Amino acid sequence: MNQKELGEIRRRIRPEHNSIQHIYGCYVNTNREIIADLDESLGLLTREEQEKYLALLKKALGGALGKNLLDISFATKQVMDSEEHRLLSALRKCHLEDASLRDAFYRSVIENIDMGEENYLILLVCDRYDVPHYGKDGHDDDRGDVYEYLLCSICPVKTGKLELGYEPEEKRFHSAFAGQVVTAPELGFLWPSFDERAANIYNALFYSKNSESIHREFIDAVFRTPVPASAGKQKETFDEVLSAAMDKDCRFDVVQALHEQLSERIALHKESKDPEPLTVSVEEMGEILENSGAAPEQAEAFCRRWEEELGEDAVVRPANVTSPKRMEIATAEVKITVDPKYSYLVESRIIDGKKYLLIAADSGVELNGVSVEIV
Fold first, then answer.
1. Of 336, 330, 340, 213, which Cα lies nearest the Cα of 266?
2. Is 366 helix (H, G, I), strand (E, B) or coil?
3. 53 and 23 in contact (C-beta within 8 Å)?
4. Across all residues in the chain, what is the average pLDDT?
5. Which residues of 55-68 are buried (b: 16+ CB within 10 A; e: fewer)?
6. What does the alpha-carbon distance between residue 48 and residue 351 come to, in Å, rounded to a whole number?
7. Best mean pLDDT range from 38-42, 144-148, 213-217
8. What pLDDT is attached to residue 96?
9. Does residue 126 surpass a pLDDT of 90?
10. Is residue 306 within 8 Å of 316, Cβ to Cβ?
């Protein structure tokens, strides 16, 4: 899915725009026991309750593609005949109305998911979207395409903080807990994906609130597919592969230029408003490294090691390995943060045998908010 398609589905998760009939789910404690089942008719809820439930579901489509939202791909043999795909297909076909199928899904989650010492709520809905297709005259050409999908959110439930509460009968304030509060989802998924504005039963979109530590046990239990590398894992692997490829000649100016180029690509991609997430092939990364001043053999070593770590078809997502807003330079004692577009103001020098980082400071300097002069 690209950003435009994601936005189209996100806009449906509002009371007046979706065709969701029921919200299903269950409340689970730390002993993996179902405390309560949830089967609410959306139309019978108050407007406020509808908005709160839908907000929790919508957040499972939040964050950045490739970072919080990861593509999950089923193998062809799974789609043709596998327990996990059959269950999702059956849930979708019956619009979640079969209680035994819902229970099978809940159990597959509960028996495998690790939510630590927190109770949690599983929310599950099925929506049917009559996808509009507009002709050159701007009118819907009424193709009749329908996209039916499942949306799941798994939300931690926490005990509210101890606060003062008013007791009308006693006309006094007492210490009281706010009760059990459902918080933003920790993880969730959309299936099937909405690719090219149509259902793609070979793919799901998985959500993880923590982009550095995704729930691998959940992916393995529900989808039984290879777990994609998280954003944190990509950053960690990128740094390790770059250091290993550059070996003892990992120069400041080369790494500085590399991150400048990646940040520039992110900025240009944002300006272009391209809905597809920005990716860079391994071959392109080799070219960027050489353009940054690395030797050809170093660029080749980077490409080889990256493929060994993440696979032959693995791409680099610049947004996962660098920040377009800040570049951090650190020694054991000092840390400097610089906007990447001004990183050229920082230079490395060796003076009288000592290594220095020099920062151009002609435009004024402040120390703890106070303007100072360098003399």
1. 340
2. strand
3. yes
4. 89
5. ebbbbbbebebbbb
6. 67
7. 38-42
8. 97
9. yes
10. yes
Peptide bond into 192 cis (omega under 30): yes
Determine how many CB atoms are found less than 10 A away from the CB of residue 210: 13
Q: CB–CB of 25/121 below 8 Å? A: yes
Q: Work out the burial of residue 230: count CB atoms within 10 Å of its CB; fewer than 13 is exposed, 13-18 middle, 19 or more buried.
A: buried
Q: By the 8 A CB rule, do 320 and 66 touch?
A: yes
Inter-residue contact 50 to 42 (CB < 8 Å): yes
pLDDT of residue 141: 63
For the chain, give percent helix, strand, coil, nearest 5: 35, 30, 35
Quickly count: other Cβ atoms within 10 Å of residue 125's Cβ: 23
Residue 171 tokens, joined: 């006309």
Give Rg (Cα) of the chain: 26
On the question of pLDDT at 95 being above 80, the answer is yes
What integer is the mean pLDDT of 148-170? 84
If you average pLDDT over residues 1-19, what whole number do you get? 92
Q: For residues 162 and 176, give the distance between their C-alpha atoms in angstroms, rounded to a whole number.
A: 6
Task: Please calculate the CA angle 183-189-193 and round it to the nearest 5 degrees.
Answer: 145
d(CA 323, CA 91): 40
- As a whole number, mean pLDDT of residues 203-207 equals 96
Q: Is the pLDDT of residue 343 over 80?
A: yes
By residue count, the chain amounts to 375
pLDDT-derived band of residue 123, with 50, 70 and 90 as boundaries? very high
Q: Please state whether 305 falls in left (phi above 0), alpha (psi between -120 and 50) or beta.
A: alpha
Can you read off the two tokens belonging to residue 208? Answer: 């993880």
Q: What is the mean pLDDT of residues 292-317?
A: 86
- The per-residue DSSP string of 127-193 comes to EEEE---B-TTSSB-----EEEEEEEEEEEEEEPPEEEEEETTTTEEEEEE--EEE-S-SEEEEESE
Kindly state the helix (H) or strand (E) to which residue 114 belongs, with its residue range.
none
Q: pLDDT at position 156, please?
A: 94
CA atoms within 13 A on the CB side of 295: 10
Confidence (pLDDT) at 308? 86
